[in-house]
Amino acid sequence: MFYGERSGGIRTYLDAKIADHARTGAYEHHVITPGAVESHEGGRHVLPGLRVRRANGYRLPLGVRRLHRTLLDIRPEVVLLHDPFWGPRGVAATAQSIDARTVAVCHGSSELDARGIPGPHGLYAPLLRLWLRRAYSRVDALMSVVDPLADCGRTANIPLRLGLHDAFRPQPDVPRGEDTVFVGRLARQKGVFTLLEAAATPGATWTLRFVGSGPAQDALQARAARLGIADRVRFEEFVTDRHALAKVYAGARCVVMPGEHETFGLVGLEAAASGARTVCCNTAPSGAAVGELAHVFAPGDVAGLAEAIGYARAAAPDYDAAAALAVRYAWPRLFADELAAMRHLAG
User: Which stretches make up the Glycosyltransferase subfamily 4-like N-terminal domain (predicted)?
Assistant: First the structure.
């Protein structure tokens, strides 16, 4: 469901693994996703689905029968479930019927998902937690960046390794501009309204540039007008080409990832590796990965966010640290470690 034309971390991870498989041939790899028309070509299997989010291309799968049939045709050794809503218990049962191991891959959290639903997120989060615990009760292992114990009732057996495309390298030839930049989905749970409030604090005179699309764009434009900063807020289309995106990062005065409930925060890692100064909430796991290249703030602290942006804008790029980060989080190294974990699980 969450593998859309403009989706974020899940698509980035899966596309990187597809490229790694093509490069190495070290393992057989299949990806099953919903799409417009059913097709099975090589390792790509598209099953019918209805588009539910035009902004990011999310599709709702039309049932699970074709999914089970495809799994039986492929007969994998390990099945990784990236979608907790596409019949996970049935998928686990089908996998077990062919002696395959199952791994639930936790890309989100109940808090993050609840904040994306209109209404009282405090009511939705416990319900989502119950769903996740039931959905993943039959899997053999959990893969996650953060500890999923609160959501799933279990700890992670395998770390979810998120890495960097080769495009995200220091770009010293790209002039550093003056804009404060947000890259990603324009949704409330991504902290975009908190960022807008920071742009309206006294002393903030910089231009805020949103690069992406999402359901909150109209509300952001209206809020910027009410705050009296509409002339300093710009919106640009989602950038699909990674080399072009690396230049967007490198050309920013700083890149801000304001979400409080990020389960990793790949944007922060990509931006820092591209040579940009970054700002993120101190709850984002990628903040620890980025280290001194990131300036952090506490959840809900608008003044602290504005202050962190000020420090990031004033700080000089550290291209040596950015280059080291890019090497440390290169996809080939991370997928080699993941493959070793899958082989151990499969026995």
Answer: 8-151
pLDDT tens string 274-313? 999 999 999 998 998 999 999 999 999 999 999 999 999 9
CA distance 193 to 258: 9
Q: Which helix (H) or strand (E) holds 33?
A: strand 31-35
Do 266 and 12 meet the contact criterion of CB atoms below 8 Å apart?
A: yes
CA 175 – CA 337 distance, rounded (Å): 36
Residue 79 backbone dihedrals phi, psi, to 5 degrees: -115, 125
CA 7, chain centre distance (Å): 8
Instruction: Read off the pTM.
Output: 0.85
Pairing mode of beta strands 180-183, 278-281: unpaired
List, in order of start, the domains of the chain with CATH numbers: 9-161+331-346 (3.40.50.2000), 180-328 (3.40.50.2000)
SS3 percent helix, strand, coil of the chain, rounded to 5, is: 45, 20, 40
* Owner of token pair 């119950």: 130
